[in-house]
Amino acid sequence: ASAVLKPIYALEAPIQAGSYDKEAVRARIERDVQSSPVVVYSYELSPFCSQAKELLDSVGAKYRAIELAPEWLPGMMSAEGAAVRAELGALTGQTSMPHVFIGGKSVGGLFSG
């Protein structure tokens, strides 16, 4: 199902984000991913995000979780969270969460990374 939905999410993310300052959002992402050896962009209510963080906890990993929204659905995500999600998609091809960075590099999500 993920492979089927990925192109839809890739189209949907920038529409949901609307107009935003791409350079500022990219700079924020760069700061975020350099702020900790492991960074997880996440949704608070997502079972996939919860599982990814539980996995990191179980191995004693030190990480920074950045919660973009309760979930990706319209009305649940702030403009800032939507812009970060859209820009992550533009930079890495992945708009789904969790999105894990290790050493500043995108390694994917719970099942893709």
Summary, kept brief:
49% of the residues lie in helices and 18% in strands.
Features:
113 residues, alpha+beta, four-stranded mixed beta sheet, 18% strand, globular
Radius of gyration: 13 Å
Shape: globular
What is the residue-averaged pLDDT? 91
Q: Order of SSEs, N→C?
A: HHEHEHEE
Please write out the topology.
Layout: H1 2-17, H2 22-34, E1 38-43, H3 47-58, E2 64-69, H4 79-92, E3 99-102, E4 105-108
Parallel strand pairs: 1-2
Antiparallel strand pairs: 1-3, 3-4
Helix pairs in contact: 1-4, 2-4
Walk me through this protein's architecture:
This protein has about 110 residues and is of the alpha+beta class. Helices cover about 50% and strands about 20% of the residues. The chain is built from four helices and four strands. It has a four-stranded mixed sheet with strand order 2-1-3-4, with helices on both faces. The radius of gyration is 13 Å and the shape is globular. It starts with a helix and ends in a 5-residue tail after the last strand. The model has no long low-confidence stretch (mean pLDDT about 90).
